[in-house]
Amino acid sequence: MEEEAQTWLRSRRMLTLALLLAAALLGDSTLAKDKTAGTDADRQDASQSEIRLGMSADFSASARALSIELYRGAMAYLLPLNNAGGVNGRRVVIKAYDDQYEPDLAIRNTLKLMDEDDVFALFSYVGTPTMNRALPLLQMHHDRHFLLLFPFTGADTNRISPYDQLSFNLRASYDQEMKGLVDHFVAVNRTRIAVFYQADAYGRAGWGGLREALDEHGLEIAGEATYRRGSPFDQSYDRQVAIMQRLQPDAVVCVGTYPACAGFIRDMRDRDVDCPVATISFVGGGAMLKLLSAAEQESNKDYTSRLVSSQVVPSYNDDSLPAVRDYREAMDRYRDAIMPPDSLLHPHGKAAEREYAPLPYGFISLEGYLNAKLFTAILQRMGADPRRADLVATVLAMGDFDLGMGQPLSFGGDTARRQASDQVYYTVVRDGRFVPFRDGEWEAWAKR
Question: What pLDDT digit, counting tens, does each position of 55-79 carry?
């Protein structure tokens, strides 16, 4: 088995190297073609009627709810914008491809978006494993000035060298989410913290953030259990739960996607492991809650108590915030029109069991809405003839700005800041929905 695993790993490495080499060759040929034609390689023709954003995400596999809701939120902002004439007479459109949360497909999609679709920027990629494959391609094509804007991940890959110059983030990082969760748990004497995580780059990013946060308190991870990317809700997670039963942690942090985390939480509660459970923003709280609520009705058990989820955008129910009011109105008005095309959702044809029921509102679609609003604000600053080569300077010159989120945001400054928000929000389930979890309320979870 070990020899087979090594052979598989070698094959994967060879495939990745081949794909990256192909990327370099394709990039060179494309650049040569651009130069021969006497065109500006970083500029979309001013006669075009649209600005294209390129998105690679999972629209048909295990994490599809994340990508669909992020896309819907972005379109809820862009659809009325385009109906009103766009930006300087040009519509802003999203060219999206399905990567099924698989890194190799993300490589293919990224090359296509850059070389065939000539997108203005990459936008709202979903997931760490796929983003990690796209960033080297951007570095290889750095002279064409492609950037990755506002990916749906809090991993550090695009926040530290060598790839930090290729991306801008709206959201806080996983390290910041983990630090907040750990600080709150330790403050209520819950110091034995274990982790359940996806066995890939995303899971390791969350694991690393948890380790660093605990280290600040002189603590270590109490134990860990992993699962394979793509694992469904309806499989058994008893093996991982058995590990937690042996560990008897004070709390468990989950770094996964909504099907696996929901299945793990269900099986934990079924086996009477009742310590608090925390999930981070990428899990997809709305989709996870939908699965757990349905399971509660079947089993007549409580799967959502002592469950806290960290988020990187404010509550989608907080209509005191201008951005949230506008978001909710747009989601109501354009509910059906903002769905991704069927070619993304059903690549092998429609099937009743694969139909997706969109969420009315959610943290992820709100993040997508804010991503689109922020890009539009950047584009408006670029004038009538936007160029990729000017994108970095434009964003860094924004300084402090307001998206209507009830908090200050900023890019640039003395540190050339590339992450607009550091804010982390905490939510718990009450009456079948996520509501804010206030600082004083953590005390009810104190270990006595």
Answer: 999 999 999 999 999 999 999 999 9
324 and 382 belong to one structural domain: yes
Q: What is the CA radius of gyration of the chain?
A: 22
Q: Per-residue pLDDT tens for 276-286? A: 999 999 999 99
pLDDT beneath 70, residues of the chain: 1-47
**217 alpha-carbon distance from chain centroid:** 28
- Inside any domain, residue 118: yes
Residues 280 and 341 in one domain: no
332 and 402 in a single domain? The answer is yes
Could you tell me the CATH number of the domain that includes residue 61?
A: 3.40.50.2300
